Amino acid sequence: MLGLALMAWLTVVICYGGNWVLGQCMIERPIVVGLVAGILMGDIPTGVIIGASLEAIFMGAVNIGGAISAEPVTATALAVAFAVGAGVDQGTAVTIAVPVGVVTAFLSIAMNNVVLAFFTAPFDRMAANGNERGLAIQHYLLWFVKYAVFALIAFLGVYFGAEPVAAIVNQIPSNVTAGLNAVGSLLPAVGMALLLRMLWSPQLAVYFFLGFTVYEYLGMPMIAIAVVGVVIAVVSALRDKELFDMSKKAPAVRIEAASATTGVNDDEEAFFE
Amino acid sequence: MSKITGDLSKEDRKMVNSIFLRSFTVFASCAGGAVKAGADGWLYSVQPALDRYYKGRPEDRADAMRRHTTWYNITQNVGTFAMGLVASMERENSTHDDFDTESIDAIKVSLMGPMSGIGDAIFWGVLRVIAAGIGINIAMSGSPLGAVIFLLIYNIPSILCRYYMTYLGYNLGTSFISTLYDGGLMKLITKATSTVGLIMVGAMTAANVRFSTVLSIPVQNSDPVLVQTYLDSIFKGLIPLAVTLVCLRLLKKNVNVNIILFGLMIFAFLMGLVGVM
């Protein structure tokens, strides 16, 4: 179990720490964490599949302005470790991961907002003294220590958690397993809703239904749907640009057009809000 | 693209490239936590400009460094624009005695909101979603290619943007952003990107939120009626769609996301437990 716990620690350091020193390149996303954990723990297909399932669930959880709702790295690392090392089945491992992600998010927020606040004074002092070298050392050292310490959560979780979790999971009756799998099937709805909140506007909401229907009924691959989406966006943007240029030339038309759009707005808002 | 990078001297290029490279670590340490956000990474990133323009004037240099210790947060793929811009302002400041240093901070602060708005929407709302949608589909079969493709789709445009934004900021100055905003062009860009994003989220909802019931209604002297067949004949994926929209509605009513998450977990668990799913 020590080896597996060390691998979980390493996964979190590489993915979480690496993400923030490499320009938030998204290696902290479950789809990548799953692969890294799979490679380190010696079962790539399991890691990849768990990563893909968790990616769909945690889709909406991004670090925007330092506020996060879930921390998916530790969650994914633990789920893969339990599935690979403790024989927990994939659906159950995914379900265990979700509350883990929520709890570690709180710990992560505590670390970022409270512990790091103690470094305010040395930072200000070194800057005022023009101590460039000291600042660079603090920058990288703090980065490493921060993530190395945070990854201990994953280490301890696997080291002490794997055996009890496996023991409990093996006793679970089949209808409870069905319940756990049902959770994994429906939970991505929250991730999608978080994304929708960011993009949703009454005028554009119809495109969500277009995407849904195209996948459900035509079964088009994602990349093809993306291309269709870009085509629609380009066509309508060119038309908007024309209207925009026209309204600039003729201010009277612009006012008319503006009041027309607000009229439509009100109707649709009443329906969608 | 040569227009964006401009006709800069060798020394200029070296400095801008150095800012670009350092900017990858902008949020690595976040010393100062919520008080400072990425301030220390910001200072580390613009340091090459300060070192160059205040060479041999340690007092002025320390003064400039202290100026850059305030709270900083912009989506990092576009934030390099602010870094390039500030580098060019520090150049002006170092040669003009009457330059108002407060304007440097003011520009930085006023750029944070709008630039993060564009950056978050384009990179996290759209590009990442497209990349993940394609990646998840491949990864579900157990192929490591899914993660690799996800990273390539996200990072190639993202790194190019980071690079050219640094030059753009250094060359163009503030006029560029205000033209975009005053003209209302920004709205067009936001609308176009949201369109693609919504189509992708729709497709991903269909692909990832799954529901199928095993419930059946027994009929005398005939095969039992499967409820799922009926649901499918109304609209395929009706339940996942409904569940997603209910979650959205709750989010819009400012219900805490963790409550929704656990509420749905309990709901789905009970559904599975009693044999509906």
Properties at a glance:
heterodimer, A: 273 residues, mainly alpha, 2 domains, 13 helices, 0% strand, flat, disordered C terminus, B: 277 residues, two-stranded antiparallel sheet, 74% helix, elongated
Any chance you could write out the topology, listing elements then pairs?
The complex is a heterodimer of chains A (273) and B (277).
Chain A (H helix, E strand, L loop, with lengths): L1 H20 L8 H12 L2 H15 L13 H14 L4 H26 L4 H9 L3 H19 L1 H20 L2 H13 L1 H12 L6 H13 L3 H28 L1 H22 L1
Helix pairs in contact in A: 1-2, 1-4, 1-7, 1-8, 2-3, 2-4, 3-4, 3-5, 3-10, 4-5, 4-8, 5-9, 12-13
Chain B lengths: L1 H4 L4 H13 L10 H4 L2 H15 L4 H10 L8 H20 L6 H38 L5 H28 L2 H8 L2 H24 L7 E2 L7 E2 H8 L3 H15 L4 H17 L4
Antiparallel strand pairs in B: 1-2
Which overall shape of chain B is indicated by the principal axes computed on the Cα atoms? elongated
Distance between the termini of chain A: 51 Å
Strand order of the largest sheet of chain B: 1-2
Order of helices and strands of chain A: HHHHHHHHHHHHH
H/E topology pattern of chain B: HHHHHHHHHHEEHHH
Net shape of chain A: flat
Could you tell me the strand content of chain B as a percent range? under 5%
Stretches of chain B where pLDDT falls below 50 for ≥5 residues?
none
Number of E-type strands of chain B: 2
Structural classification of chain B: mainly alpha
Number of domains of chain A: 2
Q: What is the count of distinct domains of chain B?
A: 2
Q: Mind summarizing the main beta sheet of chain A?
A: none
- DSSP E strands of chain A, number: 0
Mean pLDDT of chain A: 84
Helix content of chain B: over 70%
